[in-house]
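Co-fold these.
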Amino acid sequence: MWKYLIRSNKWTLSLIIFFIAIAFINMIFVTSLFNGIIEGFNEQIIDTSTGHILVTPAHGEDVIKNAPNILAKIESIAGIEAASAEVIVPGSIQYGNTKGSWQILAIDPERERTVTNVAAKMIEGNYLDAGDAGGIIIGSSIADSDAAEGAANPFAFSGINVGDTVTVLFGSSGYELTVRGIFKTKFIDTDDKAFITLDALKAMNPLYDNEATKIIVRAEKTGSEAELISSLKANGIKQNVYSWTEASTLMESISDSFLGINVILSIVGVLIAAITVFIVIYIDISSKRKQIGILRAIGIKPYLIQAMYVILTAVYSVAGVIIGSAIFFGAIIPYFNAHPFVLPIADATLMVNPGDFIARLETLIWVAIGAGLIPAIHITRIKLLDAIWGR
Amino acid sequence: MPTDRHIIEVRNISKTYKLGDVQVPALREVSLDINDGDFIIITGRNGSGKSTLLRQLGLLDKPNEGTITLNGHEVTRMAEKKRSLIRLKHLGYIFQEYALIAELSAVENVMLPAMMLETTKACKPRAQELLEKVGLHNKLKYLPRQLSGGEQQKVAIARALINKPDVIFADEPTANLDSIAARDVLSVFKKLNESEHRTIVMITHEQDEISYANRIIKLADGKRV
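Predicted complex below.
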């Protein structure tokens, strides 16, 4: 068989293996892209909004009382990396004559840095410093930095710059804060928020007494949420505790939609690959119809001819899968890691799920074997003279 | 010299092909005996039924009427599985266009039919010996594309001989060869027939090749003449 392969027409052999490799890349590319997009969305939720775990006030309560103690208790649990308390400030922001009811969150910047990556997403100015009672950072949706001309949000602060002053309207009073920076995470839920420090909140509301509206928690590894939630409850956390998937219903629905599209496109990809491989191998074997006829004429048993072509197509498909994988992992994935797909909501790279990869690999090999077996069976069953004459 | 033992007995075979709605008679009640050691040449004009007759004799096709007996056993309507085994063990074929497997070397092509019946180790020395006999002792590992037309046909002859067939069928084996290569191939046939007592049935158009045979069967319009 090996001799047969290396002595066969190199161009034909290379072309068949190349087509199988391309078909395989097509199969894994689509699913990897969707996995990457979904993963990108998930990371956005975790990194910019909820952390891995979200703690909210217990039923019947408006706030989490004694937040520093709760934070300490949460952070003492093995598997938890950090936690940060956030307070929703019931106010609105005014810039010039424009007033918008943008959500304002009061945070401890040092803690928040350890849970979210908003500090790394500043497009102008700087993140908040600890103890900065006079500063505010705003999301790109508030600054309207992305809006196309004529499509500006009427409540956004067009033209706002770092160093400008905004007024936070809190109760019946207004507090002037300086814009320290503008951030853009690409996650819509986060980019329409503004952050101030807990010190700024205390300056506005001297009655503030270490409460929190929510606590966001970063785990050491994604996937351990259920186990950590059990640990939190076992360690006396009485508040409501949610995983990031439960907390972000919007993203869950988007992820579900993408998963649905992924399944459909994967099936289409598998069908296209199957048809491509089938046609390529069918043509190859059909072109050997005369040769098969001669083998039959000299008395070679049909099942041996069929077995030979099944082995041949299995070798083609394994070679195609190996070359396809080498191109995919050696060139395509590194390229998209360096140049991610820029989507409005997240940047996506290609993510290969080992289960998907193996399933597609097996599918392709079985399809190729079927593609070899079917024409071989057909040619060994047609009239001998027709086979010899290549009809 | 041929003996009186009939290897093949053909009685009144007819073959009609269907071309659309038209029935085309290719053979009409042909009878003949092939004796052990015969060198028979079948001749006739194009369309006379030579190739059709050879295919019936070689069990590559079935006649519509009549019987064919091989070594005393009737094989006319035998199942394809059994016919395939008979072709492998008892009959050898040489086609006009050599019909070698392009990816296999000369010795591998010769070994191919024998590998169905015995191990590679057992048949390789015999394949090498046959190639030496046809004058290709120094080209055992050559691929078909590295051989001339005459040399390829000699490989096909060696392949036809590997399972020690009772009869060798050759369908215009020199048609694609120049006159020197054709003479070379025919001398191999002659040697096989005379020295090794091989039974050969060959189709040819060439009048000067008729002299190699001990019997001539002439066909016209599907009938013996």
